[in-house]
Specification:
The structure holds two protein chains of two kinds.
Chain A (H helix, E strand, L loop, with lengths): L4 E2 L7 H22 L11 H5 L1 H6 L6
Chain B lengths: L8 H42 L9 H4 L2 H25 L8 H23 L13 H26 L5 H22 L12 H37 L1 E2 H8 L3
Helix pairs in contact in B: 1-3, 1-7, 3-4, 3-7, 4-5, 4-7, 5-6
The chains are: A mainly alpha, B mainly alpha.
The structure holds zinc ion (ZN).
Chain lengths: 64, 250
């Protein structure tokens, strides 16, 4: 264990926080697309919604 | 000689996304083999009740195959990106010299707060269970339970940190968590929508397979992310002692 290496992370600057917040928003949008979207975001009608239907159920999200 | 470079956000993020994609595919595999049979059984009941199948927009075989894996891997990647972001922002406040402990701790907290807390209040339903008229309320209530699960984790950490002795920390943390969860469960609305004639065993089996899918997702995500970080550390890391000094500053 003495040879274990540890990362340090970048200093939490306002700039990093802004980037992190922006990216988190993007990822939440992606999760929303899978879990809740009914065509409003994907603009694919109900196609993506139906395509990912079983995943939604098995990921524990209310579906219908 | 360790290089004294700090990895930047994008390096950590890339590993989170990759770990999430991997975990999502594994969770998809679990769901495919252990969850789909229950989904199919529930759909058969739904169709029998409706008096025949209507032609779906997407073939059932696609929904239960490619569609399932697409859903779990995209969801996994999104959660992996969020985990990596949380790791980057919170790493220095996690009071541990070990990156593996930090990564697994965050993933474990997510499994508890984002999965278990919502699951026990709003256990997921297979097709044929749930009133379409209340989907909006149920979705909002589910999201509220996810947020409150995170609040409960936060409360646990704050409570634990008021104590110094180990078992007192554990007790305070547990108490903080349970108090928030109890209040949340009491305040959140309850839905009673399982049809009286829906097979109880099928409902139970479906719910356990859904919990299993999410447990596989977060476990694999935490372990893969920790593994990728440790490989990154051997390239760019510092000896543990140095990093421990840096990371214990409040
Ligand atoms: Zn459904």
């Amino acid at each position: 264990m003495s040879k274990a290496q540890t990362l340090t992370t970048p200093a939490v600057s306002p700039r990093l926080l802004a980037t992190a917040a922006g990216f988190t928003g993007l990822m939440l949008l992606l999760a929303y697309l899978v879990a809740f979207d009914q065509g409003a975001l994907s603009q694919s009608g109900m196609y993506l919604h139906e395509l990912m239907h079983d995943g939604r159920h098995l990921l524990g999200v209310p579906c219908h | 000689m360790p290089l004294n470079t700090t990895p930047d956000y994008s390096q950590i993020l890339l590993r989170g996304l990759l770990a999430g994609l991997t975990a999502g595919l594994l969770a998809g595999g679990f769901a495919f083999f252990l969850g789909e049979p229950h989904v199919e059984a529930a759909i058969a009941i739904e169709e029998a009740a409706a008096g025949g199948a209507e032609k779906p927009l997407v073939e059932r075989s696609v929904q239960s195959g490619v569609g399932l894996f697409l859903a779990t891997s995209l969801y996994g990647a999104a959660l992996g990106g969020i985990l990596a972001t949380a790791y980057t922002v919170l790493r220095r406040r996690l009071h541990t010299g070990s990156d593996t402990h930090a990564a697994l701790g965050l993933a474990g907290a997510a499994l508890l707060g984002l999965v278990l807390v919502p699951f026990l209040k709003y256990p997921p339903n297979p097709p044929a269970v749930g009133d379409p008229a209340t989907i909006r309320e149920r979705t909002i209530a589910y999201l509220a339970s996810v947020v409150l699960g995170l609040v409960a984790i936060w409360a646990a950490v704050l409570a634990a940190r008021t104590q110094t002795h180990q078992w007192r920390r554990a007790t305070a943390g547990t108490a903080g968590f349970l108090i928030v969860v109890t209040i949340a469960y009491t305040l959140l609305p309850t839905f009673n929508e399982v049809p009286a004639d829906f097979p109880a065993t099928l409902l139970w089996n479906f719910r356990i397979s859904s919990l299993g899918t999410q447990a596989v997702l977060w476990t694999a995500l935490g372990l893969t992310f920790a593994g990728l970080l440790s490989r990154l550390a051997t390239r760019t890391g510092h000896p543990t002692e140095t990093a421990a000094e840096i990371t214990t500053t409040p």
